[in-house]
Amino acid sequence: MAVEDTRFFQHLVEADRPFKAIMRDFAIDLDALNTIEGMWTGRWTLSWRQTRPPLPSQDPYCWLSRTSPDIVSAFSHDTKRCVFVRTSWDENMLPAAGHAMKDRDDHDRLVESDWIMNGAKIRALPQPGGYHCREAFIHALITGDPNLLLGGFTDLNINVGHEQMLRSVLKVYTHLPEGKFTPVLDTGLETNLAIRARAEGGRFWFYVANPCQWHVTGALSIQTPGEIVDLVSGRPVAAERAGDELTLPVNLEPFGLIAFRVDTADCTITSYRTEPLQAEDMARLRKVPDRVAQLLADPDVSLSLAPEDREFMGQRLDEITAAIAADEYARAWALMTHHRFWSLWRSFLERAATAQARLPDSLGERQANEKPDTLPVLPARRADMPMKVDGMLAEAAWGKMPWLAGFWRSDRTRSLADTGVKALYDDENVYLAVVCADRDTASLKADAKDEMSINACGDDQVAIFIQPNESAPLYYQMAVNPEGVQFDQRVAGGERDYDYHPRWSAATSIKTDHWVAEVALPYEAFELAGPDGTWRVNVCRRMRNDLLEPSTWSWLPGDWHDPDHFGYLRFEGVAQ
Question: pTM score, two decimals?
């Protein structure tokens, strides 16, 4: 069944109900379909969301279609066992697979790719690179033993570049008899080798698969009076014999497959062993738990997790460490790639570590609103000198005021990336300076070419909301990205006016650990003659591609367009 939406699998996990029951909620009764003569109900799995070795970068929830026993068992038939491995989608230009375009406006330049065709000539996402191109096929074979294994693309697409990698596995697969193989020695995705066997017509077949992304060497102990034959070549294999006990050496590439035949049904695989991983493969295996341990040890980063999630991650790390110490490498990898562990690592800890940034002390004094439910006040001091909007904040007037920092996330916690704001005014403008701490300003995103594309491009941005009269259902939004591209709109009674384009100025500057947006907002932009007591105001920040949840100076429970939760801008020296 073609179920590939992350939200579906999240719902499946949260509902804690059988997969078949969830499918019936969507009017798909798998048991009823399986009673129809000639009907095949195949499992649809995903393969495109990967990167080059050593580590896949898939959505962990989409792994469930490949690994969940509940889902696998729903398609476990005796004769019609079908798995489809989907490898790409036409025009999917987001950075995802082993070969990916930068974006839809950059078809002719490939990102971290060994894709053999020029992107300007074809719009495609081919199969994952290297050994990972066969990962989903091996997982399908281990979990479902399909007698129909489909792989390829859908829509208008081309997949080329890794045929030989796939051929080495599929050539073995096509030599297997169609009958159903069963697990041997309780092996599967969580054991270093996955072994499946079948006895029929006085013969015994078995295959051995490597479920993981490192080389595996070892041996099988097999009790049989017969001779073991390589299923593809048809030639006997070298095996050390002691009476009826054979020792069959095994040497498998990542996600590799080998298969054999014994011309007697008197055959039993009694045990297996694997050698310790090579140093390079062990380093790759340890990369994830070592990184997670490092992140959890950082008190600021670990606060991105709820207490129960921190406890879970600590316990899971202990389990992973124990599995590696016991040479249970596949189990360690399975523990790491569990959807909860992988999501908490990638979506919370790594994002927090990447985005965590503090305003440098050189910027001067900082103050923070201590409670999210208290509407903050931004004092605007009269500028005692001419102001130049250049993003440099060189005027002495700026240095006389503290930064109001400590922006909030919607969950009432502080953003891991500090942001500060301060305000000045004169007879013509109100000036706002916003400083955004960022530990990786070289990666700031400012792809928008015009105002309407700032949000669509996922740019870093600062947005300022002004409501001059809190009793009137009218407010204004001005936004700017790191390259100074501006956006503005007027919102009256909930209706947005994108044709509103007043005269206002913005300039930015980018330093190694922060960037600055400086704006001058003329009173006439708000149909005012000058400063008038107290305005409602909010300042919001969005980081590139939502690296972190957006943050706001005055706490908001959700959408930025919420004037009831705007703070106050108070003009000092002006009658209230």
Answer: 0.69
